[in-house]
Specification:
Blueprint lengths: L1 H7 L4 E7 L7 H12 L4 E7 L5 H10 L4 E4 L4 H7 L2 E2 L1 H6 L4 E5 L2 E5 L2 H13 L7 E5 L3 H12 L4 E5 L3 H9 L5 E3 L4 H9 L3 E4 L31 E4 L8 H8 L3 E3 L2 H16 L5 H11 L5
Parallel strand pairs: 1-2, 1-3, 4-6, 7-8, 7-10, 8-9, 10-11, 11-12
Antiparallel strand pairs: 3-5, 5-6
Length: about 300
Amino acid sequence: MEAARAEAGPDATIVGVIGSPVTHSLSPLLHNSAFAALGLGSWRSYPFDVPLGRTQQALDAMRRADLTGLSVTMPHKRPVAALVDELSEVARRLDAVNCVHRLDDALYGTNTDGEGFVSSLLRGADFDPAGRRCLVAGAGGAARAVVLALTRADAASVAVVNRTHDRAVEAAVLAGNRGTVVPNESKAVADAVMSADLVVNATPLGMSGVDRIDSDASPPWLVPPSLLGSGQVAADLVYVPRPTPWLRQASARGATVLDGLGMLVHQAAAQLIIWTGAEPPLRAMWRAAETAHPFEA
């Protein structure tokens, strides 16, 4: 971070993203595209590869280099939550931070992942969760953020299915009395899908470089896309490839589909509001994101 400060100069306002690996991150591209559109010529965003176990050192460097903000990705979301000076309610409940804002010498941590997901639903699928029935497949950090965000958006119910029952319970608890756990059994899953307005794949299955899926294979989906149909929204948090195999099959069944690029763009936009106080230029951010990861029909 000190190298970024030296490159940008003493008068620049610097933000960035920490993670490991971080070279694939679109955050600097989204941030810098937004700064250009907003006319913030002195703002810069950089990627910082920070290995696991070096989170504290990264936050110390943030202070020394006079950085204004950090976007936080894996594996640092939970460690950062334990190290910042103050947490938002959402970050506290998730025990995970994806955005740090430095004010004077204090570090404020929040989490915009779920907010970004709900915004992407509205933009990409014209779907408002209020009063709707939702099913989330997975119980990791991204799934937990989605469960909490759907609950805060007044979803009528949020059901969770996961391979590990105890983790499904932990995620469903975030939805309070609207949260339920669906047993990872074919009939129970089929019944849950049948009653859902929105089904979210919050697992990495199908992501490029993680789980390669051949078109003729029958992967162990938590929610088989063949169960989905017309009148339902299928959202996949994965955005590489576009579309994912799960979304291709759900679309073929008549579902309205939404990939994870929107969540990425809108969570970054929410971070920009925190750092700059300005309305984020979503059109410019979307243009940058879709140029980097075009949709393949």
